[in-house]
């Protein structure tokens, strides 16, 4: 479970910062960030992902590459910049996007600058998920240049991270069971797949707190974390990696590099196929999802680079 808010060829990576939520990764690389909210504040999570899908009973799969930004003394993109490069992470090919992606999206999308704090509290907080878009992409809330693969390896390559696979992460209470340096993970473990073709996925609670990456975030006022209650996570993985269904606290999830597909169910509805010890996210997507009826389909959407998803506590 997660809790947070305030927040080979053809494959890609994703980097992300987020609050607690579920994810499943695709053969891309992405960077993502997230955080959780508790009481009156939000909790923070940072995620570096290849590809993932998420659910509230959440689960996620990565499809593309995400970028995480932070404000600092390094050069930043000019305002109005709406395109995002790969940041050194692999970009998914068309076959991967077709296999893991979807055009279906029944989660509301809003421009962050058009959403007031009062409307967020009245319409979304503790009520329903919402995807927030930024005119400058991830540069609208972070310093993406600090979340590129070369920069993370240069500044934090020796830092320890924990990784695992979708079911084991849930079994182990929301943490990766295999520890390695960040450099070892990106150079070796990220490429390792089991007999079902599922890669290892970084699901780490300490990496972000031991770095200075959080201090450069510029979130909307209604997403500000409660630093005394913060719970930060780093998520990183290749396409097809992620986390199986789990519950988590009120949280936000920001994608920096890559694409992330989410699957969300309300707390009153157990995801078809069950939670632990249910299906891995790949098995669920392949064996359960195609047989769902209109009444049992989840809320779902592919989160794009630079977007933040607010996930209601479950």
If you had to describe this structure to a student in words, what would you say it looks like?
The chain has 314 residues and is of the alpha+beta class. It contains six helices and 16 strands. The longest helix has 8 residues, at 117-124. The radius of gyration is 17 Å and the shape is globular. Residues 1-10, 19-28, 36-56 and 64-84 have low confidence and may be disordered.
Quick recap:
The chain is of the alpha+beta class.
Q: Which short descriptors sum up this protein?
A:
alpha+beta; 11-stranded mixed beta sheet; 14% helix; globular; disordered N terminus
Q: What percentage of the residues does DSSP assign to strands (E)?
A: 25-35%
Mean pLDDT over all positions: 76
Note the main sheet.
Answer: 11 strands, mixed
Q: Summarize the helix and strand pattern as letters.
A: EEEEEEHEHEHEHEHEEEEHEE
* Helix/sheet category: alpha+beta
From the N-terminal CA to the C-terminal CA, the straight-line distance is 10 Å
Number of strands: 16
Q: Rg from C-alpha positions?
A: 17 Å
Subunit arrangement of the protein: single chain
Shape, principal axes of CA atoms: globular
- Fraction of residues in helices? 10-25%
């Amino acid at each position: 479970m997660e809790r947070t808010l305030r927040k080979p060829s053809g494959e890609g990576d994703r980097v992300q910062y987020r609050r607690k939520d579920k994810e499943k990764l695709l053969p891309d690389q992405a960077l993502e960030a997230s955080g959780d909210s508790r009481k009156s504040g939000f909790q923070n999570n940072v995620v570096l992902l290849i590809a993932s899908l998420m659910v509230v009973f959440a689960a996620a799969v990565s499809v593309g590459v995400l970028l995480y930004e932070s404000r600092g003394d390094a050069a930043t993109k000019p305002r109005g910049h709406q395109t995002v490069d790969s940041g050194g992470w692999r970009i998914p090919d068309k076959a991967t996007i077709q296999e893991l992606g979807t055009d279906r999206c029944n989660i509301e999308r809003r421009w962050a600058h058009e959403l007031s704090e009062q409307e967020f509290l009245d319409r979304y907080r503790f009520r329903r998920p919402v995807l927030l878009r930024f005119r400058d992409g991830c540069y609208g809330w972070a310093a993406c240049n600090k979340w590129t693969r070369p920069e993370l390896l240069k500044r934090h390559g020796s830092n320890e991270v924990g990784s695992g696979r979708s079911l084991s992460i849930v079994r182990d209470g929301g943490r990766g069971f295999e520890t390695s340096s960040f450099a070892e993970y990106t150079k070796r473990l990220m490429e390792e797949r089991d007999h079902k073709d599922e890669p290892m996925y970084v699901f780490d609670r300490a990496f972000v707190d031991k770095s200075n990456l959080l201090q450069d975030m510029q979130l909307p006022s209604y997403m500000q974390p409660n630093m005394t209650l913060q719970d930060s996570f780093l998520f990183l993985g290749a396409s097809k990696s992620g986390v199986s269904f789990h519950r988590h606290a009120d949280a936000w999830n920001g994608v920096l590099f890559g694409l992330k597909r989410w699957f969300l169910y309300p707390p009153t509805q157990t995801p078809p196929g069950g939670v632990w010890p249910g299906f891995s996210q790949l098995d669920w997507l392949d064996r359960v999802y195609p047989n769902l009826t209109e009444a049992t389909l989840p809320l779902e959407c592919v989160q794009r680079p630079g977007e933040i998803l607010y996930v209601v506590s479950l």
